[in-house]
Request: fold
Amino acid sequence: MAELGCYSPSFKKPSDVLRMRRKRARSEGPNRRTSSPVVSVDGVRPFSPGPLLNAPGRTSGGVKRRNPFANIENTYNSPKKRALLHTDGCDGALDGKKAAAAVLDGKFREELFSTDQRTQHQIKTPVSLSEDDGLFEDDLFEPHRSAPVLKVSDSPEAVCSAATAEVCLEFPADWSLKTRVLFTSPQPFSWAEHVKAQEEAQGLSSHCRAEFSSLPANIQDPRGCAELRCGFQQCLQYWQHPSLPWLSLFPRIGAERKFSGKCVPWAQDEAVQQSLMSDWSVSLTSLYSLLKARLCPYFYLCSYQFTVLFRAAGLSGSKGITALLSPTTRGLREAMKAEGIEFSLPLLEERRKSKELGSSQAGESVQQTDSEEVLSEHSENEEEEDDDDECGFSWLKEMGVQDKIKKPDAISIKLRKEHREVRLDHRPESVVLVEGSNTFTLLNFLINCKSLVAGAGSQAGLPPTLLAPTAFRGATLHTLKARTVNVKTQVRTGYQDVCSLEVTGPIMPHTLHALTQLLRPAQRGEFSVGLYTHEPTAVLNVPISQSSEPPQLECVVQDLGRCGLQQSSVQQLAAPSMLGKCALRQLHMRDYSYSWKS
Reply:
């Protein structure tokens, strides 16, 4: 091998490499330090059975290993941390992982984050913890969660102050219609069962007279509280027109299967259809009059193609009456223009403003709005080409090839514009906003619009559904369906009783708020809500842009004092919308504080 030219004198066999590694390990000794800091904790045994780490007679050190049986449950359910948590001054304000971080505060104070200035990414530093606690660095650092990441150097007092600062006593108003709401709580919903006839009658009377009784902050025995059950029955009431007992008239969009096979005597009888439409027009006019007099806060018009939300002046930060239509088509928008109805497309205007802001700030990255996500890069390029076609072809003259390039004619340019408008149809971006006196013109347009009623299919000849929180001409009082179910779910090592309350039907914004206000004292400030939204109405949460400042909240509450809603509900609905084109999906209350997901 030495005579060959390819032989390298620095070559070592694998056996030699292993021998050198063993020799180096013996020379360094058993007490060598690892690259990662190892912290000894009092009362914790080493890797193998033997004396404690901090025992006086212990000579050799051991490396603390990770507990292979640790999981999320025993991370924050350790008896040691529970005992230490009760001795601290937080009084339960810390959750499991924050409490574990506060417990480890006295053990070590090391920097856990090393920030790379180039990439701006957080890098985890390995930390050794106790087996009994079952908490490791993967449990302390969870960047995918919405909760703030805590360092172990934070004191319990700082954590308590941070927790109290995040208390939210109200959730944003959701103007979308819900088809189902599911409440879950560790406390039973037995108070909602077996309502007496007298309590049901009292709830109906209180709803019709708009009388609201105040409940105590803490109800010791919800099952024996008659006021609670009366208030619950009052929350379940709503007014609807038309009312056909054998047909479910909500939702109307995409509900052809529900209507198929049902008895529809008006489908082939034009006289019955005209009678239904005449009665429906009277009810719609009555609702608008109540809205204008601020005796009705809002109402919904649900047709088989779109939904219209009429709101009184002062709600959602508006100065006058507003109406939102969604989804719309190019034909409907053109018909509204022909009737002289002035409207706007809020999401497209927001997108246009963001583009203007991006063009004014050259070299800076501007965040895109939610409406920009719908249009792809291909559609944006098409719009740029359309703008170039409209501006002219002066650049061709500069190059001297204006005669060799075939220019698009006016018809092709018009077709491109129409394609751009049609592309919005049936999308959330097609939502239309009508304000002020134009809402009255919209009312007349809806009454005389022939396409408002289906001409064929299972919904042929049936007028749209009108939903309102207060009574109006031709309305029928309906009650939402509610039922309670108790189930057992596996939690940690055993099973826990989880009580649920399900409410189904057309659930309007004031109903959701009234139910949460009712469950607040009944469930002792701890419950969760699963919200099932009627998707075409989710975009009704789009904010309304006002040129001047919105009216004062006190004035709005005073003006809508006779609208039939609680004062707290009016205050919530008067605030400007902050959900955009999204809707609430989950709502949680812990320790009388709200958190939500949209």
